[in-house]
Amino acid sequence: MDELNRDDCNMGIVKISDEVISVIAAIATSEIKGVIGMNPGMTAGGITQLLTGKKNNTKGVKVTVDNENTVLDVALTVEYGVNIPDIVTKVQENVKKSVEAMTGLNVSSVNVFVQHIVVEKQVSNNEQ
Questions:
Q1: What's the DSSP call for residue 125?
Q2: Sign of the torsion formed by the C-alpha atoms of 70, 63, 98 and 10
Q3: pTM for the complete prediction?
Q4: How far apart are CA 68 and CA 122, in angstroms?
Q5: 113: Cα separation from own chain's centroid
Q6: Which bin fits 104, alpha (ψ -120 to 50), beta or left (φ > 0)?
Q7: Mean pLDDT in the chain?
Q8: Which residues contact 58 (CB under 8 A, 6 or more apart)?
C-alpha cells in the first residue's frame, strides 16, 4: 500500500495511507443524493453497507498520490432519473473538499466513472 509522507511540520513524519483517502472519498461520494453505490458488482446488501459506512467502503475508489498532487478515480452507480452531470459535479466537489480538508493533500482531479444506473423500484425491492 502506498503512503504519503509529509515532513511539513518539522515534528515528525505523517503518513496517510491510500486506504484512508479512499474511505474519505467513498463517504463523501455516498453523501450525494442520487448516488446508489460505488462498486458495480455490489449486491443490494453491499450497497446498504457502503452507504452506512460499515463495510466495503473503499471499493470503487482508486487513489494515486505523487509528491504534490492526488488524483482520485471514483466508479459509481446512480439512481435512474437523476441529472448525471449534476451528480458527477457534486461528487467531484464534495470528494475534493473532504479529502483536502481532512488530509491537507492537494487534490488535482477527481475522475468519476458512472458505470451503472439503478431504477428506484429495483433498489427498494432489493433492500427488503
A1: H
A2: negative
A3: 0.75
A4: 42
A5: 11
A6: left
A7: 82
A8: 19, 22, 23, 26
- Spatial neighbors of 77 by CB under 8 A, at least 6 apart, are 35, 36, 37, 38, 40, 42, 47, 114, 115, 116, 117, 118
Residues 6+ positions from 21 with CB-CB distance below 8 Å: 61, 63, 65, 70, 72, 99, 103, 105
User: Which set of grid coordinates corresponds to residue 128?
Assistant: 427488503
Whether 44 has a pLDDT exceeding 80, the answer reads no
Task: Please give the pLDDT value at position 36.
Answer: 93
Q: Does domain 18-127 have CATH number 3.30.70.1350?
A: yes
- Give the start-to-end residue ranges of the domains of the chain: 18-127
Q: Checking DSSP bridges between strand 35-37 and strand 70-79, what pairing results, if any? A: antiparallel
Specify the amino acid at residue 82: V
**pLDDT tens digit string along 63-118?**
998 888 999 999 999 999 999 999 999 999 999 999 999 999 999 999 999 999 99
How long, in residues, is the chain? 128
